Amino acid sequence: MTKLKKEDLSVGMVLAEDIYSNTGAVLIGAGTKLDATHMRFIGRADMTYIHVEDDVIETSVAPAEPIKQATADKPKTYQKDMPRYNLQERYQNTVSKFKNIYYDFRLGRVPVFQEIEDLVEPLYEAILNDEHITSKMWQIQAYDGYTFDHSVRVSMIAGL
Fold first, then answer.
1. DSSP for the chain?
2. For residue range 99-157, what is the model confidence (pLDDT) as tens digits?
3. Which of 62, 65, 122, 128 is the most exposed place for a label (fewest CB within 10 A)?
4. Alpha carbon separation from 83 to 87, 130, 136 (Å, rounded)
5. Domains in the chain, ordered, with CATH?
6. pTM for this prediction
């Protein structure tokens, strides 16, 4: 096991120890092979050092992508020519899987942050790729102002 500054990490390295939040929740589990998403997350996190497996450092992909490059990725663009997603189907699938995670949590299994992020990210992408999402939001507002206001507040809290 080697202790590295987060700036010295690269895609392909494997975590030797869990990464925990300030509240003790596992954010990224030991044994996880770092990818660009992990690198961006670690880049934003309030931590200085990360423990990685020794044998993977020598065999990591060369040239390794440093964390500075991973966090400097261009922002995603969402274009009309991107594939359409069935938003309702994606939503129902996400809710079903999230219920399973919640059920497991009630039984004592603590979910890993990455597991939840991997579950929610495709739904988030589908929403951002839906060119009709704004009109759908205004339909909610026109039908029921309270539900619309509540949804916006919950979204802001979730974003924070």
1. -EEEEGGG-BTT-BBSS-EE-TTS-EEE-TTPBP-HHHHHHHHHSS-SEEEE-HHHHHHS-SS--BHHHHHTPPPP---TTSPP--HHHHHHHHHHHHHHHHHHHHTTPPPPHHHHHHHHHHHHHHHHH-TTHHHHHHHHHHH-HHHHHHHHHHHHHHH-
2. 888 888 888 887 778 888 888 888 888 878 777 777 777 777 777 888 888 988 998 88
3. 62
4. 12, 10, 19
5. 2-71 (3.90.105.10), 87-159 (no CATH)
6. 0.39
CA distance 86 to 96: 16
Instruction: State the first-to-last Cα distance of the chain, in angstroms, to the nearest integer.
Output: 34
Residues 6+ apart with CB under 8 A from 60: 10, 11, 12, 13
